[in-house]
Amino acid sequence: MPAVDSLVCFALYAASRTTTQAYRVLLDPWDLTYPQYLALVTLWNDGDQSVSGLGDALQLDSGTLSPMLARMESAGYVTRERRVDDERVVTVSLTARGREMREELAHVPRCIAVGSGIPDADSAHELIRALQQLTVAMRDLRDHPQTVRDVVDGASRA
User: What CATH number is given to the structural domain containing 93?
Assistant: First the structure.
């Protein structure tokens, strides 16, 4: 067994990559990437978004988000318009085609749920909560590494 197979970080990495690859196969007939799909899901469920709000929701920086939105706009899925009252703010909205795609892609979450082997909605919610807690903890580590080092150093001295 490779050494990486015993690392939590590698198990998360492998699961994330494989999940993204599964989405790629499901989304390929629409020439959509996984992040583009997530943008559509956000707009379907939460309505029009500022570019910065969408970036926050998807955890994408503007250097990644802007070209992605430009491709989505060229494909006819979204529009981007500067707000009249504040030209610094760009609002992203679904086009009619973008709204139609919701029905066309309705099978995707079901395919992922069945393919994941998660037995029911409660199990899915439990996994989501655990992963969200892990995300918060890893952000804390990223933002405050010395605090974690101090805990580790203190535990190794005890």
Answer: 1.10.10.10
Residue 150 in any domain: the answer is no
Give tens-digit pLDDT for 44-54.
Answer: 999 999 999 99
- What mean pLDDT, rounded, does the chain reach? 92
Task: Grade residue 15 by pLDDT with cuts at 50, 70 and 90.
Answer: very high
Buried residues in 67-91 as b, exposed as e (16+ CB within 10 A): ebbeebeeeebbeeeeeeeeeeebe
- Reduced to 3 states (helix: H, G, I; strand: E, B; else coil), residue 91 is strand
